[in-house]
Specification:
Mean pLDDT of chain B: 97
CATH superfamily of chain B: STAS domain
CATH topology of chain A: Heat Shock Protein 90
CATH class of chain A: Alpha Beta
Strand order of the largest sheet of chain A: 1-2-3-5-4
Number of strands of chain A: 5
Helix content of chain B: 25-40%
Strand content of chain B: 25-35%
CATH superfamily of chain A: Histidine kinase-like ATPase, C-terminal domain
Largest sheet of chain A: 5 strands, antiparallel
CATH architecture of chain A: 2-Layer Sandwich
Radius of gyration of chain A: 15 Å
Structural class of chain A: alpha+beta
Number of helices of chain B: 3
Number of strands of chain B: 5
Order of helices and strands of chain A: EHHEEHEE
Number of domains of chain B: 1
Largest sheet of chain B: 5 strands, mixed
Strand content of chain A: 25-35%
Oligomer: heterodimer
Number of helices of chain A: 3
Number of domains of chain A: 1
């Protein structure tokens, strides 16, 4: 495997898999001297998408794959659920960040943060496979 | 992994990573708080929406009796997350 790629790895469909997911991402970031701001943002985005796949499709067959690659200073992350109905998790970003404490809810915050932290988020569904592609330029 | 330690009755420290896999355990710990508390983030490297949710639920519960959480020693990345989420308006952050 070339150092600027961390090929697709398959992870259990559970929150407990996050340790391994983070280790996979951290290995890629270290090998490519990715700055802490970029790595923090991408780890948060990866967790939010991964846990949404788990939350909204807990009974899907097989695991969820995560792959990272660096191309010309831009990091591209692919998260793939290979057994899912069409369900665009990236749409769940309606959150009020200005209301008073007693009216705040945590729901929807994750995807809202993803869209704040990365440059682009795309969802695609085909043949029962959901793919979310995250893109972020390093150092921004 | 997330480490939560009580330094005293009104001060606890967080260290490690506050992610979705740690939220249930953290919620149990925060549910033991029954008055205002300072939460020291000095050893915390990372937080996601799952961690923010635990803090928000605790802040709302404590607020019903006039108490609150005060958050200290947030690193810059975590502080950015709080600002993006608008949580800098619902928590006292020092």
């Amino acid at each position: 495997m070339r150092p600027h790629e961390a090929g697709d790895c398959l992870f259990d469909r559970s929150f407990e898999a996050l340790d391994a997911v983070f280790a996979h991402a951290d290995g890629f970031f270290a090998a490519n001297d990715v700055d802490s701001q970029t790595s923090f943002a991408l780890k948060l985005a990866i967790e939010e998408i991964f846990t949404n796949f788990v939350k909204y499709n807990p009974n899907g067959r097989d695991g969820i794959s995560v792959g990272l690659q660096l191309d010309g200073g831009v990091i591209v992350v692919n998260l793939i659920d290979p057994d899912s109905a069409e369900f665009d998790v990236t749409e769940f970003d309606k959150v009020d960040t200005t209301s008073a404490l007693d009216q705040r809810v945590a729901g929807g915050l994750g995807i809202y943060l993803v869209k704040k932290m990365v440059d682009d988020v795309k969802y695609h569904h085909s043949d029962r496979t959901s793919t979310v592609v995250l893109t972020k330029k390093m150092g921004r | 992994m997330l480490d939560i330690q009580f330094e005293s009755d009104d001060r606890l420290t967080l260290a490690g990573r506050f992610d979705a896999s740690q939220a249930d355990h953290a919620m149990q710990v925060f549910n033991t708080l029954d008055s205002s508390c300072t939460v020291d983030f000095d050893g915390l490297d990372y937080i996601s929406s799952a961690g923010l949710g635990v803090l928000l639920k605790t802040q709302k519960r404590l607020g019903e009796s006039g108490d609150s959480l005060t958050l200290v020693n947030l690193n810059n990345h975590i502080r950015d997350v709080f600002v993006y989420a608008g949580f800098d308006a619902v928590f006292s952050i020092e």
